[in-house]
Specification:
Helices cover 53% and strands 14% of the residues. It is an alpha+beta fold and 83 residues long. The chain has one domain (7-82): Orthogonal Bundle (Arc Repressor Mutant, subunit A). The protein has a three-stranded antiparallel sheet. A hairpin with a 7-residue loop joins strand 2 (55-59) and strand 3.
C-alpha cells in the first residue's frame, strides 16, 4: 500500500522519476543525480520511499552486493493512496 510522502522526499522522488522513470537505477546513479551533501541523506530518501511504498528493491544479478531500485509509477501510487 502506498502512503503520502513528506515534501522533502517527494521533491527527490520527482527528480529520480524525471531521470529514470520505470528503469532500474543504483545507489551510485541516484547519488550522482541528486547531489546530496551526505551519503546518509540519500539512504534516508530511499528508506522513506521504501517505507511508503514508492520504490522497489532488488539485487543486481551481476553483483549481489549492489542494490537496484525501481520507482513506482506516480499515477499508480496516487490511485493506491486513494483506496
Amino acid at each position: 500500500m502506498t502512503e503520502a510522502l513528506p515534501k522533502w522526499v517527494m521533491e527527490r522522488y520527482a527528480k529520480l522519476w524525471k531521470k529514470f522513470g520505470l528503469e532500474q537505477f543504483s545507489h551510485k546513479e541516484a547519488t550522482k543525480l541528486l547531489k546530496e551533501p551526505k551519503e546518509t541523506t540519500l539512504s534516508l530518501v530511499i528508506q522513506e520511499l521504501k517505507k511508503n511504498g514508492w520504490i522497489e528493491l532488488s539485487l543486481d544479478p551481476k553483483d549481489s552486493r549492489v542494490r537496484l531500485y525501481k520507482l513506482k509509477e506516480p499515477n499508480k501510487a496516487v490511485k493506491e493512496m486513494a483506496k
